Amino acid sequence: MTFIDGAAPPETDLVKDGSDQGFMADVIEASKQAPVIVDFWAPWCGPCRTLGPMLEKAVRGAGGAVRMVKINIDEHPGVAGQLGVRSIPAVYAFDQGRPIDGFMGAIPESQIKLFVERLAGADMTAEIEPILAQAAESMKLGDIGGAAQGFMAVLQLDPENVKAIAGMARIALNAGDADEARQILAHVPPEKANDPDIQSVHAALELAAKAGDAGDSDEIGAKVRANPNDLDARFELAEALSARGDLEGASDQLLAIIEANREWNEGAARAQLLKVFEAAGPTSEITKQGRRKLSAILFS
Protein backbone atom coordinates (compact mmCIF):
# COMPACT_ATOMS: atom_id res chain seq x y z
CA MET A 1 0.00 0.00 0.00
CA THR A 2 1.22 3.52 -0.74
CA PHE A 3 0.08 7.01 0.20
CA ILE A 4 -1.09 9.46 -2.43
CA ASP A 5 2.43 10.87 -2.71
CA GLY A 6 3.76 7.35 -3.44
CA ALA A 7 5.51 6.80 -0.12
CA ALA A 8 5.22 3.44 1.62
CA PRO A 9 3.25 3.38 4.89
CA PRO A 10 5.29 3.67 8.08
CA GLU A 11 6.57 0.32 9.30
CA THR A 12 4.70 0.78 12.56
CA ASP A 13 1.42 0.79 10.58
CA LEU A 14 2.09 -2.56 8.94
CA VAL A 15 1.34 -4.65 12.04
CA LYS A 16 -1.28 -3.70 14.63
CA ASP A 17 -3.42 -5.16 17.39
CA GLY A 18 -7.01 -5.59 16.33
CA SER A 19 -10.40 -6.04 17.96
CA ASP A 20 -13.88 -7.25 17.14
CA GLN A 21 -15.09 -3.66 17.06
CA GLY A 22 -12.32 -2.51 14.72
CA PHE A 23 -12.39 -5.53 12.40
CA MET A 24 -14.45 -3.86 9.70
CA ALA A 25 -12.09 -0.89 9.41
CA ASP A 26 -8.78 -2.63 10.13
CA VAL A 27 -9.35 -5.71 7.97
CA ILE A 28 -12.36 -5.57 5.63
CA GLU A 29 -11.97 -1.96 4.46
CA ALA A 30 -8.16 -1.97 4.68
CA SER A 31 -7.97 -5.10 2.52
CA LYS A 32 -9.46 -3.12 -0.35
CA GLN A 33 -6.15 -1.26 -0.50
CA ALA A 34 -3.75 -4.14 0.21
CA PRO A 35 -4.06 -7.74 1.49
CA VAL A 36 -4.45 -8.01 5.26
CA ILE A 37 -3.31 -11.03 7.26
CA VAL A 38 -5.23 -11.72 10.47
CA ASP A 39 -3.42 -13.69 13.17
CA PHE A 40 -5.82 -15.13 15.78
CA TRP A 41 -3.80 -15.89 18.91
CA ALA A 42 -3.88 -16.03 22.72
CA PRO A 43 -1.24 -15.42 25.41
CA TRP A 44 -1.43 -19.04 26.65
CA CYS A 45 -0.79 -20.51 23.18
CA GLY A 46 2.84 -21.62 22.83
CA PRO A 47 2.83 -22.09 19.03
CA CYS A 48 1.27 -18.62 18.70
CA ARG A 49 4.27 -17.06 20.40
CA THR A 50 6.54 -18.78 17.87
CA LEU A 51 4.44 -18.10 14.78
CA GLY A 52 3.57 -14.47 15.50
CA PRO A 53 7.08 -12.97 15.34
CA MET A 54 7.92 -14.92 12.17
CA LEU A 55 4.71 -13.72 10.53
CA GLU A 56 5.44 -10.12 11.55
CA LYS A 57 8.97 -10.39 10.16
CA ALA A 58 7.67 -11.62 6.81
CA VAL A 59 5.02 -8.90 6.64
CA ARG A 60 7.56 -6.16 7.37
CA GLY A 61 9.88 -7.70 4.80
CA ALA A 62 7.18 -7.34 2.13
CA GLY A 63 7.74 -3.57 2.14
CA GLY A 64 4.16 -2.46 2.67
CA ALA A 65 2.53 -4.75 0.11
CA VAL A 66 0.80 -6.68 2.91
CA ARG A 67 -0.48 -5.66 6.35
CA MET A 68 -1.16 -7.68 9.49
CA VAL A 69 -3.71 -7.49 12.29
CA LYS A 70 -3.26 -9.51 15.50
CA ILE A 71 -6.41 -10.46 17.41
CA ASN A 72 -6.27 -11.91 20.92
CA ILE A 73 -9.26 -14.29 20.97
CA ASP A 74 -9.42 -14.24 24.78
CA GLU A 75 -10.26 -10.54 24.65
CA HIS A 76 -12.02 -10.50 21.26
CA PRO A 77 -13.69 -13.86 20.50
CA GLY A 78 -16.45 -12.55 18.25
CA VAL A 79 -14.91 -12.54 14.76
CA ALA A 80 -12.98 -15.75 15.44
CA GLY A 81 -16.26 -17.45 16.34
CA GLN A 82 -17.95 -16.16 13.19
CA LEU A 83 -15.11 -17.53 11.07
CA GLY A 84 -15.34 -20.91 12.77
CA VAL A 85 -11.92 -20.79 14.41
CA ARG A 86 -11.69 -23.86 16.65
CA SER A 87 -7.97 -23.91 17.39
CA ILE A 88 -5.07 -21.50 17.29
CA PRO A 89 -2.86 -20.25 15.85
CA ALA A 90 -5.23 -19.55 12.98
CA VAL A 91 -4.22 -17.24 10.15
CA TYR A 92 -6.57 -15.75 7.56
CA ALA A 93 -5.68 -13.57 4.58
CA PHE A 94 -8.22 -11.01 3.36
CA ASP A 95 -8.23 -9.24 0.01
CA GLN A 96 -10.92 -6.95 -1.40
CA GLY A 97 -12.97 -7.47 1.73
CA ARG A 98 -13.11 -11.26 1.70
CA PRO A 99 -11.00 -14.16 3.04
CA ILE A 100 -8.94 -15.70 0.27
CA ASP A 101 -6.41 -17.94 2.00
CA GLY A 102 -5.09 -19.07 5.37
CA PHE A 103 -3.73 -21.90 7.47
CA MET A 104 -4.06 -23.45 10.92
CA GLY A 105 -1.25 -24.30 13.31
CA ALA A 106 2.43 -23.50 13.23
CA ILE A 107 4.29 -23.85 9.93
CA PRO A 108 8.00 -23.42 9.09
CA GLU A 109 9.34 -19.90 8.58
CA SER A 110 10.14 -20.70 4.94
CA GLN A 111 6.46 -21.46 4.27
CA ILE A 112 5.37 -18.33 6.13
CA LYS A 113 7.65 -16.26 3.90
CA LEU A 114 6.19 -17.86 0.76
CA PHE A 115 2.65 -17.34 2.06
CA VAL A 116 3.25 -13.62 2.55
CA GLU A 117 5.15 -13.21 -0.72
CA ARG A 118 2.32 -14.78 -2.67
CA LEU A 119 -0.18 -12.39 -1.08
CA ALA A 120 2.16 -9.54 -1.97
CA GLY A 121 1.94 -10.55 -5.63
CA ALA A 122 5.47 -11.86 -5.98
CA ASP A 123 6.33 -14.28 -8.79
CA MET A 124 6.41 -17.62 -6.96
CA THR A 125 7.91 -19.69 -9.77
CA ALA A 126 11.43 -19.63 -8.34
CA GLU A 127 10.16 -20.74 -4.93
CA ILE A 128 7.76 -23.40 -6.20
CA GLU A 129 10.10 -25.26 -8.54
CA PRO A 130 12.52 -26.48 -5.81
CA ILE A 131 9.61 -27.69 -3.68
CA LEU A 132 8.18 -29.62 -6.64
CA ALA A 133 11.58 -31.13 -7.39
CA GLN A 134 12.01 -32.24 -3.78
CA ALA A 135 8.49 -33.72 -3.72
CA ALA A 136 9.18 -35.65 -6.93
CA GLU A 137 12.45 -36.95 -5.47
CA SER A 138 10.62 -38.03 -2.32
CA MET A 139 8.14 -39.95 -4.48
CA LYS A 140 10.98 -41.69 -6.28
CA LEU A 141 12.56 -42.70 -2.95
CA GLY A 142 9.26 -43.98 -1.57
CA ASP A 143 8.90 -41.16 0.98
CA ILE A 144 5.18 -40.69 0.39
CA GLY A 145 4.71 -38.48 3.46
CA GLY A 146 7.47 -36.11 2.36
CA ALA A 147 6.11 -36.01 -1.18
CA ALA A 148 2.59 -35.22 0.03
CA GLN A 149 3.90 -32.44 2.28
CA GLY A 150 5.77 -30.89 -0.65
CA PHE A 151 2.85 -31.05 -3.05
CA MET A 152 0.49 -29.60 -0.44
CA ALA A 153 2.93 -26.75 0.23
CA VAL A 154 2.88 -25.92 -3.49
CA LEU A 155 -0.92 -26.03 -3.60
CA GLN A 156 -1.04 -23.52 -0.74
CA LEU A 157 0.99 -21.18 -2.92
CA ASP A 158 -0.65 -22.06 -6.23
CA PRO A 159 -3.95 -23.99 -5.89
CA GLU A 160 -4.06 -24.63 -9.65
CA ASN A 161 -0.52 -26.01 -10.00
CA VAL A 162 -1.01 -29.05 -12.22
CA LYS A 163 2.21 -30.80 -11.18
CA ALA A 164 1.18 -30.67 -7.53
CA ILE A 165 -2.40 -31.76 -8.30
CA ALA A 166 -1.07 -34.64 -10.40
CA GLY A 167 1.37 -35.56 -7.63
CA MET A 168 -1.37 -35.76 -5.00
CA ALA A 169 -3.59 -37.76 -7.36
CA ARG A 170 -0.76 -40.21 -8.04
CA ILE A 171 -0.17 -40.60 -4.29
CA ALA A 172 -3.86 -41.49 -3.85
CA LEU A 173 -3.73 -43.91 -6.77
CA ASN A 174 -0.59 -45.61 -5.46
CA ALA A 175 -2.40 -46.07 -2.15
CA GLY A 176 -5.13 -47.93 -4.02
CA ASP A 177 -7.73 -45.15 -3.80
CA ALA A 178 -8.68 -44.48 -7.40
CA ASP A 179 -11.83 -42.57 -6.38
CA GLU A 180 -9.78 -40.14 -4.31
CA ALA A 181 -7.40 -39.69 -7.24
CA ARG A 182 -10.32 -38.80 -9.51
CA GLN A 183 -11.66 -36.32 -6.95
CA ILE A 184 -8.27 -34.61 -6.80
CA LEU A 185 -8.10 -34.40 -10.59
CA ALA A 186 -11.51 -32.74 -10.58
CA HIS A 187 -9.77 -29.62 -9.22
CA VAL A 188 -7.80 -29.18 -12.45
CA PRO A 189 -8.95 -26.05 -14.33
CA PRO A 190 -10.56 -26.96 -17.69
CA GLU A 191 -7.90 -25.07 -19.64
CA LYS A 192 -5.19 -27.24 -18.05
CA ALA A 193 -6.93 -30.60 -18.47
CA ASN A 194 -4.62 -31.63 -21.33
CA ASP A 195 -1.43 -30.98 -19.38
CA PRO A 196 0.95 -33.97 -19.77
CA ASP A 197 1.18 -34.52 -16.00
CA ILE A 198 -2.61 -34.68 -15.70
CA GLN A 199 -2.97 -36.93 -18.73
CA SER A 200 -0.30 -39.18 -17.23
CA VAL A 201 -2.41 -39.78 -14.12
CA HIS A 202 -5.52 -40.39 -16.24
CA ALA A 203 -3.54 -43.03 -18.16
CA ALA A 204 -2.44 -44.62 -14.88
CA LEU A 205 -6.07 -44.68 -13.72
CA GLU A 206 -7.06 -46.38 -16.96
CA LEU A 207 -4.45 -49.08 -16.42
CA ALA A 208 -5.42 -49.49 -12.77
CA ALA A 209 -9.08 -49.93 -13.77
CA LYS A 210 -8.10 -53.21 -15.40
CA ALA A 211 -6.80 -54.64 -12.12
CA GLY A 212 -10.02 -56.53 -11.50
CA ASP A 213 -9.79 -58.25 -14.89
CA ALA A 214 -6.06 -58.97 -14.74
CA GLY A 215 -4.84 -62.40 -13.74
CA ASP A 216 -2.46 -63.26 -10.93
CA SER A 217 0.93 -61.85 -11.91
CA ASP A 218 2.86 -64.55 -10.01
CA GLU A 219 0.96 -67.32 -11.75
CA ILE A 220 1.33 -65.74 -15.18
CA GLY A 221 5.00 -64.99 -14.45
CA ALA A 222 5.62 -68.68 -13.79
CA LYS A 223 3.98 -69.45 -17.12
CA VAL A 224 6.30 -67.00 -18.90
CA ARG A 225 9.38 -68.42 -17.19
CA ALA A 226 8.34 -71.92 -18.29
CA ASN A 227 7.97 -70.76 -21.88
CA PRO A 228 9.67 -67.40 -22.64
CA ASN A 229 8.43 -67.58 -26.24
CA ASP A 230 4.77 -67.49 -25.17
CA LEU A 231 4.11 -63.89 -26.21
CA ASP A 232 0.42 -64.07 -25.31
CA ALA A 233 1.43 -64.91 -21.74
CA ARG A 234 3.97 -62.08 -21.70
CA PHE A 235 1.31 -59.61 -22.80
CA GLU A 236 -1.07 -60.92 -20.15
CA LEU A 237 1.72 -60.54 -17.57
CA ALA A 238 2.38 -56.96 -18.72
CA GLU A 239 -1.30 -56.09 -18.25
CA ALA A 240 -1.34 -57.66 -14.78
CA LEU A 241 1.82 -55.81 -13.75
CA SER A 242 0.68 -52.42 -15.07
CA ALA A 243 -2.73 -52.83 -13.43
CA ARG A 244 -0.95 -53.29 -10.11
CA GLY A 245 1.32 -50.28 -10.60
CA ASP A 246 4.52 -52.10 -11.63
CA LEU A 247 5.03 -50.03 -14.77
CA GLU A 248 8.72 -50.87 -15.01
CA GLY A 249 7.98 -54.60 -15.02
CA ALA A 250 5.20 -54.11 -17.58
CA SER A 251 7.56 -52.11 -19.80
CA ASP A 252 10.18 -54.88 -19.67
CA GLN A 253 7.66 -57.53 -20.73
CA LEU A 254 6.28 -55.46 -23.59
CA LEU A 255 9.78 -54.64 -24.83
CA ALA A 256 10.58 -58.36 -24.78
CA ILE A 257 7.54 -59.01 -27.00
CA ILE A 258 8.55 -56.29 -29.47
CA GLU A 259 12.11 -57.59 -29.58
CA ALA A 260 10.81 -61.08 -30.37
CA ASN A 261 8.20 -59.93 -32.90
CA ARG A 262 7.80 -56.26 -33.71
CA GLU A 263 4.40 -56.71 -35.34
CA TRP A 264 2.98 -59.24 -32.88
CA ASN A 265 -0.82 -59.07 -32.69
CA GLU A 266 -0.94 -56.09 -35.05
CA GLY A 267 1.37 -53.99 -32.88
CA ALA A 268 -0.59 -54.53 -29.65
CA ALA A 269 2.58 -54.62 -27.53
CA ARG A 270 3.84 -51.31 -28.87
CA ALA A 271 0.43 -49.65 -28.32
CA GLN A 272 0.30 -50.94 -24.75
CA LEU A 273 3.88 -49.81 -24.16
CA LEU A 274 2.94 -46.26 -25.15
CA LYS A 275 0.11 -46.35 -22.57
CA VAL A 276 2.62 -47.45 -19.93
CA PHE A 277 4.96 -44.59 -20.89
CA GLU A 278 2.07 -42.12 -20.65
CA ALA A 279 1.07 -43.47 -17.23
CA ALA A 280 4.65 -43.30 -15.94
CA GLY A 281 5.04 -39.73 -17.15
CA PRO A 282 7.19 -38.26 -19.93
CA THR A 283 10.14 -37.44 -17.64
CA SER A 284 10.15 -40.65 -15.57
CA GLU A 285 13.11 -43.01 -15.74
CA ILE A 286 10.74 -45.79 -16.81
CA THR A 287 9.76 -43.80 -19.89
CA LYS A 288 13.21 -42.49 -20.71
CA GLN A 289 14.94 -45.87 -20.41
CA GLY A 290 12.03 -47.64 -22.11
CA ARG A 291 12.16 -45.31 -25.10
CA ARG A 292 15.92 -45.84 -25.41
CA LYS A 293 15.44 -49.61 -25.37
CA LEU A 294 12.59 -49.37 -27.88
CA SER A 295 14.74 -47.30 -30.24
CA ALA A 296 17.57 -49.80 -29.95
CA ILE A 297 15.18 -52.62 -30.86
CA LEU A 298 13.53 -50.83 -33.77
CA PHE A 299 16.67 -49.39 -35.32
CA SER A 300 19.17 -52.14 -34.67
Tell me the layout of helices and strands:
Layout: E1 15-17, H1 23-29, E2 36-41, H2 46-61, E3 67-72, H3 78-82, E4 90-95, E5 98-104, H4 109-119, H5 125-141, H6 144-157, H7 162-174, H8 178-185, H9 196-208, H10 217-226, H11 231-243, H12 247-260, H13 268-280, H14 285-298
Helix pairs in contact: 2-4, 5-6, 5-7, 6-7, 7-8, 7-9, 8-9, 9-13, 10-11, 11-12, 12-13, 12-14, 13-14
Give average pLDDT, whole number: 87
One letter per element, helices H and strands E, the order comes to EHEHEHEEHHHHHHHHHHH
Radius of gyration: 26 Å
Our estimate of the beta-strand percent is: 5-15%
Question: Can you describe this structure in just a few lines?
Answer:
This protein is 56% helix and 9% strand.
What does the model show?
The termini are far apart. This protein is α/β, with parallel strands linked by helices and 300 residues long. Helix 2 (46-61) links the parallel strand 2 and strand 3 (67-72). It folds into three domains: 11-119, 3-Layer(aba) Sandwich (Glutaredoxin); 125-177; 211-298, Serine Threonine Protein Phosphatase 5, Tetratricopeptide repeat (Alpha Horseshoe), CATH 1.25.40.10. The chain has a five-stranded mixed β-sheet with strand order 1-3-2-4-5, with helices on both faces. Helix content is 56%, strand content 9%.
Properties at a glance:
300 residues, alpha/beta, Glutaredoxin, Serine Threonine Protein Phosphatase 5, Tetratricopeptide repeat, five-stranded mixed beta sheet, 14 helices, 9% strand, disordered N terminus
